[in-house]
């Protein structure tokens, strides 16, 4: 898997939060759902388990954020920021680190969106909510299910529709044909 090897190269085979060299797994940073180099971080079992089960958090483990919060990788910054935010409710040191942390506006928006647990809205590649009537640009060539055709990168889909039951897809017409497209492969115009 090309994505995973690119991630392993970036993290130098160390957990991107605590530097552990135990087996690593890619972790997709919400609200994104696809493992890509930009939207995933490589984590050890300990970090991953504690992020997924906040009630099992050992605050002392997260002292590692003291170093990893300075990562140059936005996805790592987002995970570090969210962990510090959770911990800052009970840990003064986490609160202090959070105060010192600096995020670019775009990264901050990403970090905050994921904290909402608001997973029932379709979000584009930048985490911007997509609404009925929006125009979007397709960001990569997408094969059309059940045919040999592709939707070309750069295709504009106008006046999309969204469904409350399906936050992963938007609906729209491409070349006059109605179809579903994964929201994360769109960019709002
Ligand atoms: Zn770790």
Short description, anyone?
The chain is α+β, with helices and mostly antiparallel strands.
Overall average residue pLDDT? 91
Number of strands: 10
- Tally of alpha and pi helices: 6
Strand order of the largest sheet: 6-3-10
Distance between the termini: 31 Å
Protein name: PhnA domain-containing protein
Pfam families: YjdM
Organism: Vibrio mangrovi
Domain PhnA protein N-terminal proteobacterial: 6-52
3D structure, described in words:
The protein contains six helices and ten strands. The protein has 189 residues and is of the alpha+beta class. Helix 4 runs antiparallel to helix 5 and helix 4 packs across helix 6. The longest helix is centred in the middle third of the chain and has 14 residues. The chain is elongated, with a radius of gyration of 18 Å. 32% of the residues are buried.
């Amino acid at each position: 898997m090309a994505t995973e090897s690119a991630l392993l190269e970036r993290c130098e085979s160390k957990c991107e939060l605590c530097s552990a060299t135990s087996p690593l797994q890619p972790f997709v940073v919400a609200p994104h759902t696809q493992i890509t180099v930009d939207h995933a971080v490589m984590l050890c079992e300990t970090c991953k388990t504690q992020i997924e089960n906040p009630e099992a958090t050992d605050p002392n483990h997260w002292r590692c954020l003291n170093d990893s919060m300075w990562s140059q990788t936005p996805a790592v910054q987002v995970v570090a920021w969210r962990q510090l935010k959770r911990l800052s409710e009970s840990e003064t040191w986490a609160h202090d680190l959070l105060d010192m942390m600096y995020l670019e506006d775009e990264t901050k928006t990403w970090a905050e969106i994921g904290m909402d647990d608001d997973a029932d809205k379709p979000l584009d590649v930048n985490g911007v909510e997509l609404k009925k009537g929006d125009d979007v640009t397709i960001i990569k060539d997408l094969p059309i299910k059940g045919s040999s055709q592709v939707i070309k990168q750069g295709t504009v889909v106008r006046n999309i529709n969204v469904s409350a039951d399906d936050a992963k897809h938007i609906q729209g017409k491409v070349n006059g044909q109605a179809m579903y497209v994964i929201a994360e492969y769109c960019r709002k115009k």
